[in-house]
Design brief:
This protein is of the alpha+beta class. It has five helices and seven strands; from the N terminus they run E-H-E-H-H-E-E-E-H-E-H-E.
């Protein structure tokens, strides 16, 4: 399983940004808490709901395994404080960003790495992903990490627009 390809990522685009620039690029989502182990099942269900269904991640079980391996640190130590879970006013979980302190893969970029960023479809286009990325970047910048990296599918125009808006630039493709 290659996280740099992630679920159904046909053509990964590696993007990087200065953590402080992302931290200043918008407003934090006002209600969030750090990711906890108890979020595993919810994270897996949301991942299945929002990502394209393509092999090998074409079942809820596959997304649960993928999430478990991420939570277990298979790709790097999960940075809980920099992995916010957005909450609605009712306390419902509505989006999240999952960050590792560094991606443990040969040739991976140095610094914090976003494994996943997703928002409940019912809550899209309300600034939640943007607000979570800003919240995460504030934690990362305060820890004196300079860079945030992530991979996104070239076809995922919405996510690429989000990351560009936050100051991410393309570093490599394919
Ligand atoms: C991509 C995703 C995280 C965006 O979440 P969101 O909360 O709806 O995004 P925001 O409301 O914070 O959007 C912030 C900005 O990003 C850009 N953007 C977000 N979604 C977009 C879309 N579908 N099309 C074009 N631009 C988009 C816009 O510039 C937007 O600002 P605006 O609304 O003022 O125009 C969400 O659509 C999602 O969960 N997608 C499925 C999972 C995924 O692909 N994750 C990313 C790769 S891991």
């Amino acid at each position: 399983m290659d996280v740099q390809r992630g679920p159904a990522m046909a053509e990964p685009v590696l993007m990087v940004a200065d953590a402080e620039a992302v931290a200043g690029a918008g407003l934090e989502w006002p209600r969030w808490r750090p990711m906890e182990r108890q979020d595993l099942d919810w994270h897996a269900e949301m991942s299945w709901l929002v990502h394209p269904h393509a092999p090998p991640h074409d079942s809820p079980e596959a997304h649960l395994e993928l999430t478990k391996s991420a939570f277990d640190g298979e790709w790097g130590e999960v940075w809980h404080e920099a992995s916010p879970v957005a909450l609605s006013e009712d306390g419902e979980r509505i989006g999240t960003v999952l960050v590792v302190r560094s991606l443990e893969r040969p040739g991976a970029p140095v610094g914090a790495y976003v494994l996943n960023c997703m928002v409940d479809p019912a809550w899209k286009r309300r600034g939640i992903a943007e607000g979570l990325m800003v919240a995460s970047a504030c934690v990362i910048a305060n820890a004196a990490e300079q860079r945030i990296a992530l991979s996104v599918d070239a076809q995922n125009e919405g996510a690429i627009a989000l990351y560009r808006k936050l100051g991410f630039e393309e570093l490599a493709r394919g």
